[in-house]
Amino acid sequence: MTEQEGGSSEVTGPFRRILLISAGASHSVALLSGNVICSWGRGEDGQLGHGDAEDRLSPTQLGTLDGHQIVSITCGADHTTAYSDSLLQVYSWGWGDFGRLGHGNSSDLFIPQPIKALQGVRIRQIACGDSHCLAVTLDGEVQSWGRNQNGQLGLGTTEDSLVPQRIQAFQGVRIKMVAAGAEHTAAVTESGELYGWGWGRYGNLGLGDRNDRLVPEKVSFTHGEKMVIVACGWRHTIAVSSAGGLYTYGWSKYGQLGHGDFEDHLTPYKLEALRDCFISQISGGWRHTMALTSDGKLYGWGWNKFGQVGVGDNVDRCSPAHVKFPNDQAHFFTVAQNMKVVQIACGWRHTLAVTERQNMFSWGRGTNGQLGHGESVDRNLPKIIEALSVDGSGGQHIESSTVDPSSGKSWVSLSERYAVVPGETGQSVVSDGGNGNDLHPRRKCSTFGAKFSYCWYRMEEVLEPHSLGEEDLVSAIICKFAAFCVWDAWPLYVPLSCFWFGIC
């Protein structure tokens, strides 16, 4: 442990896996194995959760949620949520205007607080937009709260809601996932139907017009394709079909729809440039879009003023551009497959990505330190976040911050570290001891689409999942249960994507 300026310190030790990432307007959050949450970037409204309004230029551990067994993290524009599966509790913090924190008022919060209205509810997924949030329950119901001036809560009114309310329009419909834009919302049902509601001025609801909708309305697809993933940018929407096809619609002034022009689309339009790719993950920024293919290739397009597309310049792109890592970082990837990306997240003006080797990269706007590089510099190419990456110089090193709610002060404490040992597959397996060779669990598989199946292994509470495709891709190791943004069934959530994530 080494002392730094301001009384903070760095915690070094064996590596923690990066399980989930999320990005807001100007802040970033990561969930690591060992139940560690790190946040960095803009802190003015308390969105980092460290008990103060200070920016953090490097990933800093959020000590107030230690021991809460968090399985989900989600950033809104200037607020953050987390969900504990063991405690059945949703937490929120940050800017509270319009009731976006769900606590019955509009007050800001600088440390995580439980949302009482959701206590005891099993949550499948949480999505946050600019000023509103939604939660999908395990039963497929949707709760929404926050700003509602354009009907984005789906409650049939334009009144803000300071606490979560059930969307009655989905009575009898089981929702699988939701996505939130600035003032609009989208949802995918378990049967593959797509819905949109809220602000529709740019066609971002996909309903063929520019009108708002106060309640969810079904989006039509001429070929009857089933949708499995949806994401929202500020004023545009992205969806992926069960066949891996990518559709975009809404605002395209900066080329964020990716169709080679700057024309808005009022209905879902298939992205021809990626027709031959099987899309596994998508993310929408303020005016840019990122898509990840099943073989780990990353593409970006749209607004690029701050380099958030990641292609080495600041020129907008109206068609998908392949994001490549700089040559000076090539030594991080001694095996070709380790360059595969397994997670992506778009902030308003910045982008985050995690590779299969467990290196985390960021690029785009860096004014508030949201890139996590210890500085306030923009980047137009992916740059490794040293503090969180297996190949960071000096190893993984995370600042640890604990908050005393009574004083509002924060201080640094040493974090518990988990050992990482080689597994039988050649990947790293998190273990509490031993050499990792005593794991002989049972194997189970489930299919997804025409190309992929998901397999995992059970040994008491230890799962070692594999994502098997044409190249036998190997994904992240998880323990206890999977915790990805799109789940399919309890208790082993089957994600509608090509990679597993979870809690160790």
TrEMBL record:
Give the UniProt keywords, A-Z: Guanine-nucleotide releasing factor, Receptor, Repeat
Q: Which Pfam families match?
A: RCC1 (PF00415), WD40_RLD (PF25390)
Q: Tell me which residues make up the RCC1-like domain.
A: 114-397
Look up the signal peptide feature and give its range.
none
Give the molecular function GO annotations. Answer: guanyl-nucleotide exchange factor activity
Any one cellular component term from GO for this entry? Answer: cytoplasm
In this chain the RCC repeats are located at 35-86, 88-139, 140-191, 192-243, 244-295, 296-357, 358-404
Kindly give the PANTHER family that the UniProt entry links to this protein: REGULATOR OF CHROMOSOME CONDENSATION (PTHR45982:SF1)
Protein name stated in the entry: Ultraviolet-B receptor uvr8
* The encoding gene: UVR8_2
